[in-house]
Amino acid sequence: MKSFLIAVPLLIASTFVQADNTCGKVTIADMNWSSASLIANVDRFILEHGYGCDAELVPGDTMPTGTAMIEKGEPDIAPEMWSNAMKDALDKGVAEKRLRFAGKSLSDGGEEGFWVPQYMVDKDPSLATIEGIIKNAALFTHPEDPERSGFYGCPAGWNCQISSGNLYKALNLEEAGFDLIDPGSGAGLSGSIAKAYERKEAWFGYYWAPTAVLGKYKMVKVDFGSGIDKDEFTSCTSAENCLEPKVTMYPPSLVQTLTTEKFAAASPAVFDYLSKRSFKNSQMNELLAWMEDNQATGDIAMEYYLVNNKDDWMQWVPAEVAAKVEAALDNL
């Protein structure tokens, strides 16, 4: 009996260790943009080789994936969920014990702002401020009218066209001599930055991160001197019917890893990993630039990241898991 009483707790403890480190089949949303696909592939590899999961990538996008996780309980994981896009629905899902947020996919959030090239700020640090931009408006020659200055806004039809246009108005850029330029498309906007960089010309306009463009071309976000007024941004700056916008910096967009509550409860060890796994925008910008330059898919970029950034990802997992992942990388 004494031997039995000793053996039972050991058996139970062993069972819990196995359950905590084996998650069985798990589905991961592979969103249709590069950063999300990279993270999804990193998660798949680490879960499969480090935690013994049967991990599968499934196609995903923000609204369809969030809705499916709430209503159907699948997929199990959305690695890069831009939460503000469906905040009320996701918050309700958490409150109803259908969903659980793990951690921040992007530690400093999605980033928007008005930018100038780093080489301009190196020559004149005042150009990192809106006061310096306005004072030196003549530097930013309009591509079609040398008598005017040019500010590149967000392409027509995009949500950011509203906010960038309202801030253009709030900052009195028209009175300062700037015309609001519609680049026509995302490619047109990124192309204008590339062209300016190649010629070391002045450029001033809207852009966002994480993106390959900000990984390739070092840009400085212009400080409006206003700080962030989130209420103003939500109620007016980002609203189409905003009549009197006030100056505010863009608030960061919350970008989180989302799981179903069922998966989080069943796989605490994996959930712990997902809570720690996070990328800085500066790092993701560089990874996206590498992906674009090498025409790399999320799977190829995953291998590049895991091989070259061991000091980062090994902090997200226990030592024994890291050893298994490293061994799997050696066998690729």
What is shown here, in short?
The protein is of the alpha/beta class. It has 2 domains: 20-109 and 254-330, Periplasmic binding protein-like II (D-Maltodextrin-Binding Protein, domain 2, 3-Layer(aba) Sandwich); 111-237, D-Maltodextrin-Binding Protein, domain 2 (3-Layer(aba) Sandwich). It has 16 helices and 10 strands.
Task: Please provide a written account of the structure.
The strands form four sheets. The protein has a three-stranded antiparallel beta sheet, sandwiched between helices. Strands 8-5-9 form a three-stranded antiparallel beta sheet. The protein has 332 residues and is of the alpha/beta class. It is built from 16 helices and ten strands. The chain has helices spanning 2-21, 34-50, 62-71, 87-95, 118-123, 130-135, 160-170, 186-199, 212-216, 230-237, 261-266, 268-276, 281-293, 298-308, 310-313, 319-330, and strands spanning 25-31, 54-60, 77-82, 99-104, 111-117, 149-152, 178-181, 205-209, 219-221, 255-260. Helices cover 48% and strands 17% of the residues. Helix 2 crosses helix 14 (298-308) and helix 2 packs across helix 16 (319-330).
